[in-house]
Predict the structure of Tritium exchange subunit.
Amino acid sequence: MTPRTGRHFLQIPGPTNVPDPVLRAIAAPTVDHRGPEFAALTRRLLAALGPVFGTSGPVVIYPASGTGAWEAALVNTLSPGDRVLSFETGHFSALWREMAGALGLETETDFVAGDWRHGADPDALAERLADDTGHEIKAVCVVHNETSTGVTSRVPEIRRVLDEAGHPALLLVDTISSLGSIDYRHDEWGVDVTVAGSQKGLMLPPGLSFNAVSDKALAASRNSRLPKLFWDWGPVLEANKQGSFPYTPATNLLYGLEEALLILQQEGLENVFARHQRHAAATRAAVRGWGLEVLCRDEREHSGSLTAVLMPEGHDADKVRKIILERFDMSLGAGLGRLAGRVFRIGHLGQLGDLTLAGTLSGVQMGLELAGVPVRPDGLGAALEVLRTG
Amino acid sequence: MTPRTGRHFLQIPGPTNVPDPVLRAIAAPTVDHRGPEFAALTRRLLAALGPVFGTSGPVVIYPASGTGAWEAALVNTLSPGDRVLSFETGHFSALWREMAGALGLETETDFVAGDWRHGADPDALAERLADDTGHEIKAVCVVHNETSTGVTSRVPEIRRVLDEAGHPALLLVDTISSLGSIDYRHDEWGVDVTVAGSQKGLMLPPGLSFNAVSDKALAASRNSRLPKLFWDWGPVLEANKQGSFPYTPATNLLYGLEEALLILQQEGLENVFARHQRHAAATRAAVRGWGLEVLCRDEREHSGSLTAVLMPEGHDADKVRKIILERFDMSLGAGLGRLAGRVFRIGHLGQLGDLTLAGTLSGVQMGLELAGVPVRPDGLGAALEVLRTG
Amino acid sequence: MTPRTGRHFLQIPGPTNVPDPVLRAIAAPTVDHRGPEFAALTRRLLAALGPVFGTSGPVVIYPASGTGAWEAALVNTLSPGDRVLSFETGHFSALWREMAGALGLETETDFVAGDWRHGADPDALAERLADDTGHEIKAVCVVHNETSTGVTSRVPEIRRVLDEAGHPALLLVDTISSLGSIDYRHDEWGVDVTVAGSQKGLMLPPGLSFNAVSDKALAASRNSRLPKLFWDWGPVLEANKQGSFPYTPATNLLYGLEEALLILQQEGLENVFARHQRHAAATRAAVRGWGLEVLCRDEREHSGSLTAVLMPEGHDADKVRKIILERFDMSLGAGLGRLAGRVFRIGHLGQLGDLTLAGTLSGVQMGLELAGVPVRPDGLGAALEVLRTG
Amino acid sequence: MTPRTGRHFLQIPGPTNVPDPVLRAIAAPTVDHRGPEFAALTRRLLAALGPVFGTSGPVVIYPASGTGAWEAALVNTLSPGDRVLSFETGHFSALWREMAGALGLETETDFVAGDWRHGADPDALAERLADDTGHEIKAVCVVHNETSTGVTSRVPEIRRVLDEAGHPALLLVDTISSLGSIDYRHDEWGVDVTVAGSQKGLMLPPGLSFNAVSDKALAASRNSRLPKLFWDWGPVLEANKQGSFPYTPATNLLYGLEEALLILQQEGLENVFARHQRHAAATRAAVRGWGLEVLCRDEREHSGSLTAVLMPEGHDADKVRKIILERFDMSLGAGLGRLAGRVFRIGHLGQLGDLTLAGTLSGVQMGLELAGVPVRPDGLGAALEVLRTG
């Protein structure tokens, strides 16, 4: 194993590379979470978060990981036995659905199967809604960007289908690996609960998660009968009015959040999204240049934040990842669930410059070659062509 | 208001002053939580945590605040309608009981009322257990150190009473403001679930919480019927075997945890406990020197980690705190719940040297004087006497 | 030895306690010192430094300690054999004079002896100047604040004497332990070279030093014949015009400097000076309350940044310091040169809040008692009286 | 200009990319430089520095940049009028010679002219020494690695020539851009003074510099008659015995030094040198792949720490650098002195992983193309070939 030197290349699809100023911000001394200084911070954060979600409504911050925010979205809005429609778009949509089932929601009836290479299918949704004349479906769950596959679902089309059907189901969307990376608009797209985490496009360490909440979701929460304590929106929204929280907040990560939001604001969300698209295009150019296949099958659904690469038959993705980790000190994402060993995932989200992406793709190319995967050497050049001209 | 300069005096009973090396540790770059480096960290942490809880059994780490760990202790071990015995020792025991009620547990029948100036009463427990010949009480909840009152319950005596009664109820103990500050022994005292948080004696920012789990609690968790997903011990313990977690762990706080555990180890737990007792004694000497009253009434139950000070009639504790914050840049704890305005709380836990305590008590003395509270000027001298000779 | 916990009390007269934001600033990644980002930083720094020195002229920044800036002040302005008048005010004035001698300057003829308990004597200066009708004295060296004694010389009176004598000697002033702590005005007081360092009132780690330069000093530098390379002002002033330096600058300390200047600006220089005076008054009140003697004899010359405390006969100051370091983890300044063992010095400069000063004086009081020094216990109370009412 | 995101690529030949643990180390609170904790640090540092220089003799640490250490090497060993032999190997050898001249040393007589594309010429030295039968030449100055050209002089051959001539001149070697990057052995190669700085292979921010000193140099220093104060070895070596310094040391940079030495030790000096050679080879492969010329002409003298690239006629190196900085946020070194505009320099020293080098070379390739420089696209692939197989 080559002795390690220099910064590790963390090119998994999250956690992402935390900017140095964010790391320094979280190293500031912890303050009294009931004092005036902290209350002012809370107010600034709540004001700055809205634009990132594309909402003028409330955003609930949890001192917890994204899994908790999934749970929160469900327990605040639904009641035991409620029917939830979900799409089989990948590993994380499956886990969220499994969680819903474990909470006592009905997730079998309205399950839309899929091949893990496409996003949520608006047409399939239209069919299901057409059948549901009694409006038994209480919520539609969509993972905006499937971290396991690199496929981005077209949420506006999902919304349109709901609207055209005049169906009152809540729209719950997981943006864990898209928020702050891929264009997203909670209000404009009529999303009811947006689930997010700190460790991807928000460029923070893990430990914070979020629910952006529509008026309709808030109304639903008043009638929801799933038990909720830690995840209950009510006390949080109430305490937030005074700049406080009903539990001890994760103070130092909140310092980092303020710095990260400032960084996003300085680059400009539009620029952030364009950069991710450009990096994704360069990565796909590399994959195709190597003669390999991108997992995502629909040109409209390529993820801006990660690219899953299909291995040729007979080649193990985890072997490639291991070689790359040991020889080049770079972490890539493994294939998850049914994709284990068959794909590896290149994360290109969060703070990322062109040259770090070039170094990343250089490492992938060398790793593929070292692993004996038959690839053409044209990948890197094709990527640079995109970066240079894009 | 005096312009601020120098480090803020954070003398609330938690979050506590995070040591500089811990702050620097949490500023290290986030790594792949599924990679070998992180797995090794997890294993080191799990090994180092045991001694701090006084257990050789498992400790579950949550990327969440202490409130979540309360919820975890209940939902992993109990079932709807289970009777839970709790003591009215202060604000936090009341909140925990309220949570249990909201979860569908029965908390009225076995509630032991109290005056917020004493700990959990072993004699009252003995009476209740004697009545419960059918062993309907499934759990006894004790807050080891009441952060709202500065009273430390005598857990070993609670254990003895349970043993003498031959009662099988689980013993659930909240050590949020005592772990790493006040002598505590999960295994030796036969505790079934110990609840803890990162931001007090463990000297970390908020954002991590813990459940130490006995074999008996583990067994109970297999039959428990309260719904649990995020808080479920099972997947955590399973994943921990491989050095991983079923959710994205709060990586950077875990870096800090390793550093904090090292600091505790270097000072030596026995020395840490003795230091807290000595600082608590000095603080009580100051309070009495001023002619004021310590809230805690039982000499056996004075907290090592904080001291609640009763105000003379007609004087508002919050006014004193406000003056001290504005003039001397020190945060003290407010009176909570029924004690609002009647007490203020001096935190003397976590990393704390003699001179910072002396500065703290100097600020309290000056603040009381500035607020017009009739105090004798003998407090500080009495405290120094303890520090000098202790 | 008590196990250490909490932050060390660094109460020497410098280096001082570096504010946390400054420490975090110096941890930012080093940039290209020839690139546009660094040039912009240099320009901001040079603009912000002037007001701290009270000058609209140039300030030269050295990547070196204060000793180097002493040397720079001499070699840039003087020529071999030049007569330099200096005052025996303490250890540092003696060292500076020794350096001047080693450089080939004439330092015997115009040496004004002193007792290390007073500042530079304007009357003695008037006499000497009156004798020097040929204007053979080329420079007058004054240490504004003698770090070894806690005596502040009255520079405006020195200036007045020079003016009244119509004497053209350069006025070189060492402000190493006064800049940013004690009122100082390079332009208004007609100082020609002001020597300063980073590690005292500027609240930085050691490693930077400064020369503020008058037009007259600049003119003198063109005729000066002492050899100078690293310390030569010329190339620095030339390169500074482009925002660069003729040597590799100490980039990360400069990051800290920007942050420190911001902190000074936020508090306001007037407030900074007043705070130091108030802390000095509180410290003297403590010393007198203990029944001990302050080294400085002239009420007009008490230092705002440190206080030297005379030990009673038969008591060793270093023993007291050792006890305080081992028992209370506080560093105090030793007696230097002829004062070794006879005084200890309490630094109260740089970032310092009232409660840290109270903790400091508490530690001194306890240390004196533990060392068996006969002191009255009234010191701390007297200091608090000043802090509370001041 | 592309909005910046991600870490800047600092690929100048120093300052280099400071490792994160070093940055965090320098953010630790400053301590008393006269206390026992600091003395212990000093002793550890002095012990750990020796192996990096390849010496068992003393190493003097200056709180100053490398220019100062140049001055120190001369003023400690020589006297006015002493003849100094130097080689014209590039910009820095010229500056050092210029400094020697300004100090009153005789640098004309024994100047060996050169073309800035070769190192110090052992044969030319042999000739000069043969002529100097009176041993008038007192010192031979060699820049081990010319930072302006990327040429490494063969110091062992210089030594051999001196030995074969039986000439007693001191051998003074500048290793500012080679120490900790390119094999170097102070004792074994019979060097008398080795000059080094913190900001290159030692992976620190600028602000520290060094003189490693042979017995012969120490002896010479006792007779040297150039004035020396700040740079005087004597007081430093004397104070070092007690773990202290005669000036205020740059405490926080010394914290970083300890961490950096640990990092070097962990990788192993042999591995460090091999890595630099491998990265240099990959870089030259890229340059040649592009169809460009490496400045260094002698295969034996290619630098391990930087590569200077000659531009084709009619193309401006600074334009390329500007495009690369603006488009790809990477800093490269400019051509210096007579090479201005004609070369750019790629730094590949200090902490540097393969993928960061690949990103660096990607940026250079794209920048050359964007600047319209006629290059073949084969450079990057050739470099990866070296990295993959090396």
In short: The domain at 9-16+268-389 of chain D is CATH 3.90.1150.10 (Aspartate Aminotransferase, domain 1). Chain D has a mean pLDDT of 97. The longest strand of chain D covers residues 137-143. The interface with chain A takes residues 2-7, 9, 17, 19-20, 27, 266-268, 271-272, 275, 327-330, 351-360, 362-363, 365-366, 369-370, 377, 380-381, 384, 387-388 of chain D (CB under 8 Å).
